[in-house]
Amino acid sequence: MQKPNETDSFRLLLEKKGLKFTRERRELIQEILRLKTHFDADGLHELLKSKGSQISRDTVYRTIPLLLECGVIQKSVGDGRREYFERTSVKGHHDHMVCIQCGKIIEFHSDLIEKIQTEVCSEYGFRLVFHDHRLFGHCKDCAGK
Ligand SMILES: [Zn+2]
Ligand SMILES: [Zn+2]
């Protein structure tokens, strides 16, 4: 199965919203497509600037929700002080369990949860765009302590 092109998904969404695929937005998505690990908005902005981009911090912050909406990125889990994101296509869509004792992060995917949340949303007449499940608790190692 061919993977949907991430740049195309982004461009389509911009088009739908009547927004332009500006040079800054192009630089932003091209940089994200090189990333294999999670990132935060400020780090991404620094990285772009170090490469000579004129993109403003504001543009980075305003573009992230668009990238979430078109599914190119999803929310990740970081140190709790900042919001982290990651490219959806690197590992496929997944959600997170966070150990509140040692900070360990477990990535999981459940077809059942994905399916049920779609059903719940439609019961509420809610059009789901993206989601972010974080389950907090004690990991296997910590639960025994
Ligand atoms: Zn999910
Ligand atoms: Zn733990």
How would you characterize this protein structure?
The protein has 2 domains: 1-91, Winged helix-like DNA-binding domain superfamily/Winged helix DNA-binding domain (Arc Repressor Mutant, subunit A), CATH 1.10.10; 94-145, Dna Ligase, domain 1 (2-Layer Sandwich). The mean pLDDT is 92. It is globular and about 50 Å long. α3 crosses α4. It has helices at 6-16, 23-34, 41-50, 57-69, 88-91, 111-123, 140-143, and strands at residues 73-76, 84-87, 95-99, 105-108, 134-137. Helix content is 46%, strand content 14%. The protein has 145 residues and is α+β, with helices and mostly antiparallel strands. The strands form 2 sheets. A 3-stranded mixed β-sheet has the order 4-3-5, with no helix packed on it. It has a two-stranded antiparallel ribbon with strand order 1-2. Residues 99, 101-102, 104, 139, 141-142 line the site of one zinc ion (ZN).
The low-confidence runs, each spanning 5 or more residues with pLDDT under 50, are none
Structural class: alpha+beta
Shape: globular
Q: Roughly what fraction of the amino acids lie in strands?
A: 5-15%
> How are helices and strands ordered from N to C?
HHHHEEHEEHEH
The strand count comes to 5
Tally of individual helices: 7
In the sheet with the most strands, the strands line up as 4-3-5
Provide the CATH architecture of the largest domain: Orthogonal Bundle
- CA-based gyration radius: 17 Å
Which fold does the CATH topology of the largest domain refer to? Arc Repressor Mutant, subunit A
